[in-house]
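REQUEST
  id: r-88c1
  op: predict_structure
  target: Aromatic compound catabolic protein
  payload:
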Amino acid sequence: MNAIEYLNISTEKLTAEEVILTMPIRDEVKQPYGIVHGGINALLAETAGSFGANYGLDNTKQVPVGLDIHTHHIAQATEGTLRAIAKPIHAGRQIQTWQIDTFVVETGKHTSSSTLTAMIIPVRR
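RESPONSE
  id: r-88c1
  status: 200
  body:
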């Protein structure tokens, strides 16, 4: 089982202009204090940005790999569903940068903001 399956991450939208993912908040993704672990925000952001960077690539020839991710935790989340919305800042042939904002679906509360930079590399077989 991979992280996407384990965390029940679902794709709501996948285009070159926008990626929207959702993930239910469960006890397994919380800190001992009962709030979502910051690493989950980063994982959700990197997944959304990587899906976007991957969109339109011929995966037999190229794949995106993360170079850098910055996540700013804005507000805590304790229950509900997280929604990550990723949009490209720059979608080049070799480097892509995506802005990802995460919200609690039920309240609209903005919980984190991330920037992901990915490099497009040839598939090595």
